[in-house]
Amino acid sequence: MVLEMKDLCVDFTGMRGKVRALRNVSLSIEKGEVLGVVGESGSGKSVTALSILGLLGSNATISNGEISYLGQNLLRLGPKEMQSLRGKKIGMVFQEPMTALHPTMKVGSQLAEVIKRHRGLSKKQAHKLAVEALKEVHIHDPELVAKKYPFELSGGMRQRIVIALAMSAPPDLLIADEPTTALDVTIQKEILQLIKELNDKRGTSVLLITHDLGVVSSVCDRVMVMYAGEVVEEGKTEEVLNAPSHPYTEALLHALPDLADPEEPLKAIPGEVPDLQNRPAGCAFASRCPKAMDICGVSVPALEPVSKNRSAACWLRRDTY
Amino acid sequence: MKKIIINRLGLLIFVVFGVTLISFLLSHVIPGDPARMMVGQRANEETLQQVRQQLGLDQPLLIQYETYMKGIISGDLGTSIRTQKPVIDDLEAFFPATMELAIIAFIFALVIGIPLGVLAAVKKNSFWDHASRIFSIGGVSTPVFWSGLVIILIFYGYLNWFPANGRLDMNIHPPTHITGLYILDSLLSGDMVALKSSLHHILLPAIVLSYAQLAVITRQVRASMLEIMEQEYIRTAIANGIHGPFLFFRYALRNALIPTITVVGISFGSLLGGAVVTETIFGWPGMGKYVVDSIAYLDFPAMMGFTLLIAVGYVIINLIVDLTYYVLDPQIKG
Ligand SMILES: Nc1ncnc2c1ncn2[C@@H]1O[C@H](COP(=O)(O)OP(=O)(O)OP(=O)(O)O)[C@@H](O)[C@H]1O
Ligand code: SF4
Ligand SMILES: [Mg+2]
């Protein structure tokens, strides 16, 4: 197990008081595995990712749970130990390549600084490796690109560079938070391929956040579905996508654009995500769930195994396994 | 780059024209008669008229202005009524002292102000942040004549660690004249005695002069650092393991300095202007003292020359500010 998260609860303190953004989130990633995290906007995907590297803002508190990396509890690390872990053992790629790079530093220098830090090399050696790193992410003419500023490059190029930065150590785990959302469709494919290739070639585990089930089906070994700060279903990708256990996963699949009939408008899931400030009692999805029963509005269903490789948090699935 | 320079030099022409026009008109509406100042109260009307003629004051206003502008173009700012020497020579004699004081004060303001601003931002709401805030408020709200006198009282009056007058000790010769900046000249000519004495003399007035600017720079650096630290590329850098002073200075400060430069440029202009009071308090033989003496004497050519010099100085500073932007921000092209 490379990474294991157990019952993580994260609260944000804001103007309107405390909000629980994550409620008992658990996940695990094996070596070389790609775990997909899906869910609508605001379901807590980014908070989950940021909590791993200790990048949540000062208004966040982790009030419960455990995150362990290769058996080491990350929540107990001091600032020094956490700093030496970031980028070196666990790399991270963010959604917005346009703003993720330093605007007034040449991309080669940005890479070299990070490489120098991770491997304790001289400036010159680091620059050489920086060019190598650009080659690894399939940038043609890496010497030339190394001398460019981010604003001189396209979004796809920048995202490759952000990935090169995150992979430079190289880390055991790559966290990618919607790495393709801001890109054109053709570029999206290339970036996903690149991530998959790095995963295959180096055995890097990947935590891939997306709200695109198509992305999940093409690159993820396992998938975890989040709703309102909770994990509602988790399992092998084909199984979850072919036969979802949770009504929310089902609804997500239903809302997928029909590739055979592109004319048909996107089907949105009816209803709204509950306000985390006033989370309803019982199942968070109850107000939108077509199969809701009496118990759903009263008591929260726990995430429990429903088959060999699958867990779900739904009263419908209790006692089936 | 060329465009910036040409642009600013074009501006220079307008500024020179505008500033001379205004200062010229002002000098003629202000009550007071320079010719009377020169000849004294008891001179008769005939002498007075003679002096008027000599100074060209009997000519129509437009002709006087034309004569003045022609002079400026050929590098002649007129003759000082008080010293009877060409104004340009006087400025040349006094300007280096002011420049030296302003430069040293500026260096203090930058060297202390920038790290203090970074510290205040990085340790936001900590003891250091509050201490730097109080220090800064002190800087902008303490008038120079007061802080100058207090510092003289302590370091000269009680402790007697530093002199309170002039650029050098009485018994020391100025270094060989190269630039007129004593510190630089004594370094260039290897005159250690003059170097030591001029450093000793410049310290107190430079600290007093820099205090207000230091405060402004500190606040500006703090504000832009806080803004930059929220940027996504800083989060990327942190996620990639960059941290500590390296993150603050190499990654954040560089961009935080971009909005600070304008403030810094204006600040240097204010230093030149603010030198007037500081020089008077510390008996610093610079332009400030020269212009104060000139005002007392209604020496209009001298005052106008000084005004023009400061205005040109501002334009040049603006040019330097623009060029610095150009260097710091690769996105500005052209
Ligand atoms: N810094 C913060 N301060 C306060 N609340 C926050 C903060 N960051 C996230 N939240 C709250 O936590 C919840 C989960 O946010 P998160 O960013 O993890 O969603 P997400 O699943 O990544 O959504 P998206 O698909 O839009 O990126 C949201 O309700 C959000 O309001
Ligand atoms: S627990 Fe009830 S409301 Fe929630 S998803 Fe299952 S059936 Fe629907
Ligand atoms: Mg997100």
- The percentage of residues in β strands of chain A lies in 15-25%
Share of β-strand residues of chain B: under 5%
CATH topology value of the largest domain in chain B: MetI-like fold
What would you report as the Rg of chain A, rounded to the nearest angstrom?
20 Å
Q: What's the N-to-C terminus distance of chain A? A: 25 Å
Name the average pLDDT of chain A: 91
Mean pLDDT of chain B: 86
Helix and strand run of chain A = EEEHEEHEHHHHHEHEHEEHHEE
Pattern of helices and strands of chain B:
HHHHHHHHHHHHH
Low-confidence stretches of chain A: none
List how many beta strands of chain A DSSP finds. 12
What is the total domain count of chain B? 2
Explained architecture:
The complex is a heterodimer of chains A (321) and B (334). By secondary structure, chain A is an alpha/beta fold. Chain A has a domain at 249-321. Chain A is built from eleven helices and twelve strands. Chain A has helices spanning 45-52, 79-85, 97-100, 107-119, 123-136, 142-146, 155-167, 185-202, 213-219, 237-242, 247-254, and strands at 3-14, 17-29, 34-38, 60-69, 72-73, 90-93, 173-177, 205-209, 222-227, 230-236, 304-307, 310-312. Chain A has an eight-stranded mixed β-sheet, sandwiched between helices. A four-stranded antiparallel β-sheet of chain A has the order 2-1-4-5, covered by helices on one side. In chain A, a hairpin with a 2-residue loop joins strand 1 (3-14) and strand 2 (17-29). Chain B folds into two domains: 34-76, no CATH class; 88-328, Orthogonal Bundle (MetI-like fold), CATH 1.10.3720. The model of chain B has no long low-confidence stretch (mean pLDDT 86). Classes of the chains: A alpha/beta (321), B mainly alpha (334). Chain A binds chain B through residues 53, 55, 83-88, 91-92, 94, 96, 99-105, 113-114, 117-118, 149, 151, 162, 165-166, 168, and chain B through 231-233, 235-244, 250-251, 254-255, 258, 328-331. The site of adenosine-5'-triphosphate has 15 residues of chain A, from strand 1 and helix 1. Iron/sulfur cluster (SF4) is lined by residues 246-247, 283, 285-286, 289, 291-293, 296, 301, 314-316 of chain A. Chain B: Residues 95-321 form the ABC transmembrane type-1 domain. Chain B: Pfam families: BPD_transp_1, BPD_transp_1_N. Chain B: It is a multi-pass membrane protein. Chain B: This is ABC transporter permease.
